[in-house]
Batch of 2 targets.
Target 1
Amino acid sequence: MRDTQAAPLVQVEGLKMYFPVHTGILRRHTGNVKAVDDVSFAIHQGETLGLVGESGCGKSTVGRALLRLYEPTAGRVVIDGEDIATLSHEALRRKRPTMQMVFQDPQASLNPRMSLSAIIAEPLTEHTKLTAAQRQNRVYELMDQVGLNRRFANRFPHEFSGGQRQRIGIARALALNPKLIVCDEPIAALDVSIQAQVVNLLEDLQDTLGLTYLFISHDLSMVRHIADRVAVMYLGRIVELSPRDDLYARPLHPYAEALLSAVNEPDPDRAKTRKRILLKGDLPSPANPPVGCNFCTRCPKVFARCLTEKPALVQVEPGRQVACHLFETIHPATGSTGGSEAKEHLQHGVTQ
């Protein structure tokens, strides 16, 4: 259970991750791909924050920059009281046991030349002074935790199914008793029949070990099952950050509304009455995002201000943050908006 009174375990402020673009014969620096552009959020101890959005929006880049697998261009990433972005390489190495990652493709993330036992024991070899016998006992404990038979210890990754390989990756991430685990689409490469097993395993481990997750996924139904809060990304920026139940019941940002309208509804009666929102136009390039709101080229509620000014991510309701000009001038006491044009769009859904 998360403790919202204590300081967040993870505090991200103004995170930017730009990849340089070089063109011409001389390979001059002519621009940047703004994969992550001014992202801020917090994760409390024991909480699961879901990070969702369409492919290419920057979800995985956020996860990798968070653990400094990528060097952030700008911003602060405070994990357990230390700013990861400013640590020296030696200090960062000592910090690694606190934060681990479960990768998307379990086959690509496991060394095919190492046995299961060697893969799980590798972080123990690098970061602890355990003897060989102690390491092997720890490997067996981790295999028990993730549901792998001890008889498989000397087998190699190609001898396992996709779900079993992901369990190996989870066991490796747990080896050093981390506080934070970034799950980068951990079920995307698995069969549907196996996905629920892996997610249930992650939940059980969280309850047992008090883990904190950043759960990155494009599977909105699975995020609804596992997350406490959900951040919706679009073109490198967070457009809405809300408690899970509030977001799925009543999304505020037009993009979040369109995204959630695509989620399958198991109730046939409700499915008949639900309105599917189809966005027009193409996703802009992160190398050349719009001048104003990143979503203005596809938003069904766009108005003049959206084309010239980027909205800030602000709190509009208790626990709910939205980056949209339709909401940023709402006064909590009255529920009224400061701009008449924005108010008209909210009330009547006027489309430009």
Note: The longest strand covers residues 28-43.
Target 2
Amino acid sequence: MKIRIAALVSLFLLLSCKNEAQTSANLESDLTTEIMKKENIYQFKVKDLSGDEFDFSSLKGKKILIVNTASKCGLTPQYKDLEAIYEKYKDKNFVIVGFPANNFGKQEPGTNEEIGAFCQKNYGVSFPMMSKVSVKGDDMCELYQFLTKKSRNGLKDSEVEWNFQKYLINENGELEKVISPQVLPTDPEVVDWISK
């Protein structure tokens, strides 16, 4: 009788440990799924160059090219190509959103007003331009934290290499591609993505 009771107690303990381990594994799996849940860009609101709120949820259903810009960079002439593809595709559910940033070689020292005037005068920029932000480091803006962290965007970790890095967002607000700063906006890799 004592042996039977001991065996039942052992079996009970074994089963309760197994259930506890399964519960722990399930919780861990749920937590990992929660952490890796892909966010989308529609949750973000930022300020434009005029200081007005820009709500990304207003772009639902559009392809979005996000680019960090600078006025005094060797890549600054890309503004011309950005404006050209914006003009060509803006009526086909496509938009470009520019984010001036002073993170690389202090090549965007101007105020929001000065940046706006420079873009308009030199390149006739008509696509939405946001207030100057930080795209790397401890003060990185929240939107760029989403763009650069796989745990938030569900695609990949990346680092903004330099001015004019491009992030391509699909019609569901999800990050789909990261394009190097040196790749021109008119490159087939970008244009084919916009037009497909």
Note: Residues 11 and 193 are 60 Å apart (CA to CA).
